[in-house]
Amino acid sequence: MNKSFAALLALVALASGAVVYGVMVMTGPDMRVQPALMAYDARMPLLPKDAVPAVPGLFFPSERPGANTSEYGQTTLVRGKFAYVAYCVFCHGERGDGEAPVGQSYAPGPGDLRTERVRALDDAALLRASLTGVGHDPVLSRVVPPGDRPSLLLYVRALAEGREPGPAGADRVSP
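Structure tokens predicted for Cytochrome c domain-containing protein (175 residues):
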């Protein structure tokens, strides 16, 4: 009887241990202690007060004293055209008139980038409208790399003014 009682006691202890282990694995303290944050939910901590950021905020050429888009030259416009073709041409068309196959499938259709309304926007408003405006939100703000945004902005300005990059480093007027 001693052996059977000891075996029964061992079996009960083993079963209770298995139950406790199962409860701990399924609902244990580890799940309550660890933060339930996904990487994209986390916010970067603020920089210390006297720290200088390695990459300053967005660069808007026209905010520089005495700056205008023509002084940034052909290379910037060519890079802007490359970004425009990669991200914008499908909806706004090659001339920025909103006449493109993908754009025509939307209601309302994409805006004409050559209008006075677009010309009147300051750089910050134009960039914001380009990245998060109607039909864009919020995809383009995640897709267009920050390094391409200034040149893209300058190229859209050039379209609005009727200029685009031409051969041999000379601006030419669009037809």
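The two ends are 105 Å apart (CA to CA).
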